[in-house]
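Q: Here's a chain of 587 amino acids. Please give me its 3D structure as tokens.
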Amino acid sequence: MGATSSPKSLSGLRPFLRPYRTRIALALIFLVLAAAATLMFPLALGSLIDGGLMPQDKGSQVMALREHFAGLFAVAAALGMFSAVRFYLVSWLGERVTADLRNAVYRHVLQQSPAFFETTQTGEVLSRLSADTTLVQTVVGSSLSMGLRNAVMGIGALGMLVWHNPTVMLQVLGVLVLIVIPAVWFGRRVRKLSRASQDRLADSSAMAAEVLNAIPVVQSYTAEAREAARFDTSTDRAFQTAVRRARARSVLVAFIIIATSGALLWGLYQGTQAVARGDITAGHLGQTVLYIIILASAFAVLGEVYGDLLRAAGATERLMELLTSRSPVASPMNPRAAPISQEGSSIRFEAITFHYPSRPLLAALTDFTLTIRKGETVALVGPSGAGKSTVFHLLLRFYDPTTGRILLDGLPTRELALHDLRARIGIVPQDAVIFSSSALENIRYGNPQASDKEVHAAALAAFAHEFIIALPEGYDTFLGERGVRLSGGQRQRIAIARAILKNPPLLLLDEATSALDAESERMVQAALDSAMRDRTTLVIAHRLATVQKADRIVVIDHGRIVEEGTHESLLKTNGVYARLATLQFTT
């Protein structure tokens, strides 16, 4: 797709430009006025040469020169004012459109299902949000305006030249057409290399993001030098591609400048011959020289701008790829509303079969049927990879099942708005996520409208209050990126407090106490027992000691339910659960 991108790809920016039609129109008006003022200079100069420097009495000549120079200054002042207004309007437009585009891409990516991130690296998304939007800003806020201005000036200069020297300049115009055709053909090479260069930069960004997020592991394996070498190789590939792009673009610019200058110098030569024959005046020649310079400069600038447009076209295409990607999971057009019960939510999985998009041949769940009553606590146990976390993913509608359906309070989850569905569910993941903000704001993430008092109460319930107030600034302490200033157990208790503050009718606990020591586990388990009251709770646990009090234990193996019952009844069956229990409790 990148190989066939062209400046037409910039049409994807149209929806972002449309809200600012008035500013665009004003910018175009002042752009044309600035170009017209520039085109007035040669006429004013020709008038100066023919009128102000003609032999006449001294007084009349001084007055004529004053008038002509006053006219030239008026043209210069108009050019300065028109250019300043155009520059401000276009710069504002570039900043605004880029901000809107960046916001739209980020908002769209946030709505993608996990399937999107199975094939797209986070670093690549960040590269598109930064590097690609910067290229778009350069074009919208500068290059496009410059190109249009020079196009107007070039067309105007060419028109004036054809008007005053029709035979010669029509020949020059024919030569210019012959120049443009190979230039456009050669530009395809620049376009391909521009997209390739941006892709290589995205690869480097993705690699850096992945490694920096795993820096403790990298350092523990003394892999700093190895990772640095890998990054060096990646950036060198990006550099080599950029060099090839720059080389091709340089040849393109050189060809345009040399060819157009040669053609226009030939036209200038014909003009000097006309003066020698007496066909035109010296002032006429002077303005012809200026128009030729304007035309040559305009073509040279347009060659540069075309290169910028090619790079921005590739960037726009990459951004549009993100914006046009559609999540397979979306809210229905007419969602149904289910009342929230204070007694929790009922859940029913009906003959669920599911394959992850990245593993289409391996079923994560097969013919999975399970009913959970309101207020019931159900534990999901089984070996790693059995499908326990998949149950949570489907319940949250991160994915939709291949076959079967899930009912929440009697309504299919596909018929509920995603916001309403997920607002009813609180989750404490195995790997607690801590944001780069204070302890207070990390807990308040579960309920942004909660008061400080409610946040403190949730922290007390999760046995997090004591260690939080011991932090340097208490609840206002910045916890660092990914919570690096906290221990694993402290991060887990922050996550539990966040879920308690949300107060949902359905609670999902995915190894919620896995990172805690024995003493903290007892405290947090008591908090969880309190949090699980009057709500439905699904618990994933490898430590069977934490689920013995569950109303039911469901044993999953290879995506199927193989056993179901209480702790005592399952021990008597001498099945999978009994073997797991024997291994753990004996150990």
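Q: Can you summarize the key feature?
A: The chain has two domains: 2-324, 347-586.
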